[in-house]
């Protein structure tokens, strides 16, 4: 079975990689779908994010089970166009739930056949988020505990 793992991935973190690995243990193929959202101020372009993800998983034993794509528009439309029905979302803590719950139910409203599966990353990663990583990197802090080395390097180059 193939599933979609959607998100901004700006940039990919150890939290994403943890959820991704869990998803590859459960499904045959995980399609990382990067939302191209012109209303969000992203620091990496969608193509840069694809490269960062590809480099981050290159050595992983589950790499062959992962596809990376980008999409514009509604996620349910991407799912339907690709004949996919299942979304994976990582939920770190209770506060994530409200937003994730609304999004999952809305996606199911927009596409009756679309269901969301929530996966929890390892507890030591529950506080890692793309936005905090961006802020730490912006102020020159050490992000090496939260993102792969290639991402830390790319952040340094962006903000350096
Ligand atoms: O990593 P993020 O930013 O939490 O991911 C959010 C994402 C990209 C999954 C969500 O914003 C999304 O699906 N955007 C595409 C547009 C869409 O379908 N919006 C309706 C969601 S109910």
The distinct ligands, each listed once, are: 4'-phosphopantetheine
CATH superfamily: HUPs
User: Which oligomeric state applies?
Assistant: single chain
Radius of gyration over all CA atoms, rounded: 15 Å
CATH architecture: 3-Layer(aba) Sandwich
Order of helices and strands: EHEHEHEHEHH
Q: Which CATH first-tier class would you pick?
A: Alpha Beta
Shape: globular
**Mean pLDDT across all amino acids:** 95
What ranges have pLDDT less than 50 throughout 5 or more consecutive residues?
Answer: none
Largest sheet: 3 strands, parallel
Distance between the termini: 42 Å
Q: So how many helices?
A: 6
Helical content (DSSP H or I, runs of 4+): 40-55%
CATH topology-level fold name: Rossmann fold
**Beta-strand content estimate:** 15-25%
Structural class, by secondary structure, is alpha/beta
Number of beta-strand segments = 5
Major sheet: arrangement of strands:
1-2-3
The overall number of domains is 1
Q: Descriptors for this entry?
A:
single chain; 160 residues; alpha/beta; Rossmann fold; three-stranded parallel beta sheet; two-stranded parallel sheet; 6 helices; 5 strands; 43% helix; 18% strand; globular; binds 4'-phosphopantetheine
Give me a quick take on this structure.
With 160 residues, the chain is α/β, with parallel strands linked by helices.
């Amino acid at each position: 079975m193939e599933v979609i793992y959607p998100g901004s991935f700006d940039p990919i973190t150890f939290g994403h990689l943890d959820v991704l690995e869990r998803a590859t243990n459960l499904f045959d193929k995980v399609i990382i779908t990067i939302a191209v959202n012109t209303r969000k101020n992203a620091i990496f372009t969608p193509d840069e994010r694809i490269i960062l993800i590809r480099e981050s998983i290159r050595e992983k034993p589950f790499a062959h089970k992962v596809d990376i794509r980008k999409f514009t528009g509604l996620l349910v439309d991407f799912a339907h166009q690709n004949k996919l029905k299942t979304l994976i979302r990582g939920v770190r803590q209770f506060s994530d739930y409200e937003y994730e719950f609304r999004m999952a139910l809305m996606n199911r409203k927009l596409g009756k056949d679309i269901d969301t599966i929530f996966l929890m990353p390892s507890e030591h990663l529950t506080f890692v988020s793309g936005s905090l990583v961006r802020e730490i990197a912006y102020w020159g802090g050490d992000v090496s505990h939260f993102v792969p080395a290639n991402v830390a390097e790319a952040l340094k180059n962006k903000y350096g």
